[in-house]
């Protein structure tokens, strides 16, 4: 999976005061949820509050802050993760939007002199905000 394919097209949705997007893994092997080092997500330059983010994958939904302890749950290469958070102030509830995501990933089985390998992958797309079904 290439980083420029991380944001899944057509997945920017709003439901009430929450917004969500689907992400594909920018790595070639499954990783435990604990490998997610962080997510920064902005819509039209307005950051989605990191404290409001939840992560849904493989039938499990957790606050982003809880992922670090979850070595028992896995993000598989063919699965999408849905990231949801509070809709930022100043973002129109319809139309085209600039969506930028930065995803930090630890690769636990690759170590360097500096410790476990940490990747920071970025993707940006223009997307239409749709009402969730």
What order do the SSEs take from the amino end to the carboxyl end, as H and E? Answer: EEEEEEEEEEEE
Give a count of the beta strands, DSSP E runs of length 2 or more: 12
Distance between termini? Answer: 28 Å
**What is Rg?**
15 Å
Beta-strand percentage? over 45%
Query: What is the name of the CATH class?
Result: Mainly Beta
The domain tally reads 1
Structural class: mainly beta
Note poorly predicted spans. none
Biggest pleated-sheet summary? 6 strands, mixed
Mean pLDDT, to the nearest integer, reads 94
Task: For the largest sheet, list the strands in their spatial order.
Answer: 7-6-9-2-1-12
Form type: globular
Q: What brief labels describe this structure?
A:
single chain; 133 residues; mainly beta; Immunoglobulin-like; six-stranded mixed β-sheet; four-stranded antiparallel β-sheet; 12 strands; 0% helix
Description:
The protein has one domain: Immunoglobulin-like (Sandwich), CATH 2.60.40. Helix content is 0%, strand content 53%. It has strands at 13-15, 18-23, 31-32, 36-43, 46-47, 54-57, 60-63, 74-75, 81-86, 96-112, 115-128, 130-131. The strands form three sheets. The chain has a six-stranded mixed beta sheet with strand order 7-6-9-2-1-12, with no helix packed on it. Strands 5-4-10-11 form a four-stranded antiparallel beta sheet, with no helix packed on it. Strands 3-8 form a two-stranded antiparallel sheet. The two termini are 28 Å apart. The model has no long low-confidence stretch (mean pLDDT 94).
């Amino acid at each position: 999976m290439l980083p420029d394919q991380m944001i899944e097209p057509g997945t920017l949705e709003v439901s009430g005061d929450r917004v969500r997007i689907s992400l594909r893994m920018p790595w070639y092997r499954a990783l435990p949820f604990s490998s997610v080092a962080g997510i920064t997500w902005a819509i039209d330059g307005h950051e989605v509050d990191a404290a409001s983010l939840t992560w849904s994958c493989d039938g499990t939904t957790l606050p982003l802050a809880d992922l670090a302890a979850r070595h028992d749950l896995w993000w598989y290469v063919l699965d999408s993760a849905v990231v949801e958070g509070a809709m930022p102030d100043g973002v129109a509830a319809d139309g085209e939007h600039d969506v930028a995501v930065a995803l930090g990933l630890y690769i636990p089985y690759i170590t360097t002199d500096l410790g476990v390998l940490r990747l920071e992958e970025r993707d940006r797309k223009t997307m239409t905000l749709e009402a969730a079904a």
